[in-house]
Design a protein that fits this description.
This is CNNM transmembrane domain-containing protein. Keywords: Membrane, Transmembrane, Transmembrane helix. It comes from Bacillus taeanensis. There is one protein chain. By secondary structure, the chain is mainly α. It has one domain (2-196). Helix content is 86%, strand content 0%. It is built from eight helices and no strands. The longest helix is centred in the middle third of the chain and has 34 residues, at 92-125. It is elongated and about 65 Å long.
């Protein structure tokens, strides 16, 4: 029990540190991308951030809903990415937490901050101050659109992720397989250590 609690605490602290680093990186990158661009390009960047959050939400949901049995059958046939997909399925709680809590929440926060910056650019380019009624209306409309896209997109994609969970996890496994091959690293080494205990 104590060992399990210790692992949970270590995982939570690790996730907190990773979130801190990734949030800082995404914030710097998004600020750099938005700096000096038109409001239309800024809107496109905001929507790309939202889509990134939705994509990771799909992966998180699929990891928890995937059926491991067909993945084992594919792994026995040496289908590329099947072993990595099994790793994702076996670590579904951590994968879901990483994808949905870390990337999902970061993209939500960053998209909100970026949306505010785009609204300021738009109002200034149209000759309005950031304290005008026009700025207030644009802020409400744009923030509402971003929020509805985020929530609506995630709601729709959750159903999609559940229905096609195993195939989605396999595709992510194939991506990990490619990355491991290109970079000559083993991202799924943890699962092998667990199996040997």
């Amino acid at each position: 029990m104590k060992d399990s609690l210790s692992k949970t605490i270590n995982w939570s602290l690790g996730i907190a540190v990773i979130t801190l680093v990734l949030a800082a990186v995404f914030s710097v990158v998004s600020t750099a991308l938005l700096n000096g661009v038109t409001w239309a390009v800024g809107m496109l960047i905001v929507f790309l951030i939202v889509l990134t959050g939705i994509l990771f939400d799909i992966i998180g949901v699929a990891a928890t809903a995937a059926n491991e049995v067909p993945l084992h059958a594919m792994a026995s046939k040496k289908v590329p990415g099947a072993k990595q997909a099994i790793f994702i399925s076996r670590n579904a709680d951590r994968v879901a937490s990483f994808c949905q809590d870390v990337f999902g929440d970061i993209s939500g926060i960053i998209s909100g901050t970026a949306a505010a910056a785009v609204v300021i650019q738009l109002t200034l380019q149209l000759g309005h101050s950031d304290s005008s009624a026009f700025h207030y209306v644009v802020t409400v409309v744009f923030t509402s659109v971003v929020a509805s896209m985020t929530v609506g997109g995630k709601a729709f994609c959750k159903t999609f992720a559940i229905h096609y969970a195993t195939n989605i996890v396999l595709q992510v496994g194939r991506l990990l397989y490619t990355i491991e091959g290109k970079l000559k690293i083993n991202l799924t080494a943890i699962s092998k250590k667990r199996k040997s205990k």
